[in-house]
Structures are given as C-alpha cells and as structure tokens.
C-alpha cells in the first residue's frame, strides 16, 4: 500500500461530508485511543475569545429500550419513510445536520422523551 501523504489526506478530508468526518474521528478514537477534537482545542489560539458554536448536528447515541417510539420520532423529525427512519435509528446516525441550538434542543428533547440518548455535536 502506498504511503498516504499529508496533502492527499487533506484533499480527501475536504471531500468528506460531516457524517464521514465524524466516523473518521470515531475510528481514530477506537484505533489509536486519541481524540482529534482535543488536539484541535489544545492547538487553538491561546489568546482571544472562542467562537460560540451556532450550528449543531443531532446524533443518536442509543435508542434505549423503546426502539419503536424512537423510530417514530426520527421519522417525524426527518420526514423520511419508515424503513429509512429504522435504518437511521439502528445505525445510531446523525439525525439532523447543521441546525440551530434551539432546534437541536427541541429534537434532543423529543428523542430523549422517546427513550433515546442523543448527543449534540
């Protein structure tokens, strides 16, 4: 296998969507025990005010004990069909991308009430 250069890695990273990047981050955590987000924070500017996050992704981390209720909420939130909602729920995927803090909190509340565990990223 050819060695991956920094330039080719960065070009590949530019072509990824947010879901693929999140999967890459999770894989780095699993494989090497590192958290790239912690490195980015540590390498950030030492002076100045940090920018407040304005867009969030709502990621399902567990569907809990009532998967059917969670599937129904995912279907309602995303507007996808029942089978797609089931796949998203079972795959513990990002349910909504790039939503406002208020919308992310509303979605999180609905999913939590249905028994799911949710993470805002």
Please summarize the sheet with the most strands.
3 strands, antiparallel
Strand content: 5-15%
Total strands: the figure is: 3
**Helix and strand element order:** HHHEHHEHE
Contiguous low-pLDDT stretches (5 residues minimum) are none
Q: Strand order within the widest sheet?
A: 2-1-3
- Judged by helices, strands and strand pairing, the structural class is alpha+beta
Number of helices: 6
| Shape designation | globular
Please give the share of residues in helix. 40-55%
Rg of Cα set: 17 Å
**Could you give the distance between the termini?**
34 Å
Average pLDDT across residues? 84
Task: Indicate the topology.
Blueprint lengths: L5 H9 L3 H15 L3 H8 L12 E7 L4 H12 L3 H9 L3 E6 L1 H13 L3 E4 L1
Helix pairs in contact: 4-5
Spell out the key features of this protein.
alpha+beta, single chain, globular, 6 helices, 3 strands, 14% strand
Short structural summary:
This protein is an alpha+beta fold. The chain is 55% helix and 14% strand.
Describe this structure in words.
- The chain is an alpha+beta fold and 121 residues long.
- Helices cover 55% and strands 14% of the residues.
- It is globular and about 45 Å long.
């Amino acid at each position: 296998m050819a060695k991956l250069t920094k330039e080719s890695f960065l070009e590949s990273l530019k072509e990824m969507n947010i879901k693929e990047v999140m999967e890459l981050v999770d894989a780095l955590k699993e494989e090497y025990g590192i958290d790239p987000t912690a490195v980015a924070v540590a390498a950030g500017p030492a002076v100045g005010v940090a920018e407040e996050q304005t867009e969030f992704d709502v990621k399902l981390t567990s569907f809990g004990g009532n998967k059917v209720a969670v599937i129904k909420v995912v279907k309602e939130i995303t507007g996808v069909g029942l089978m797609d909602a089931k796949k998203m729920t079972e795959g513990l995927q990002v349910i909504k991308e790039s939503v406002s803090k208020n919308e992310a909190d509303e979605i999180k509340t609905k999913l939590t009430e249905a028994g799911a565990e949710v993470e805002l990223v």
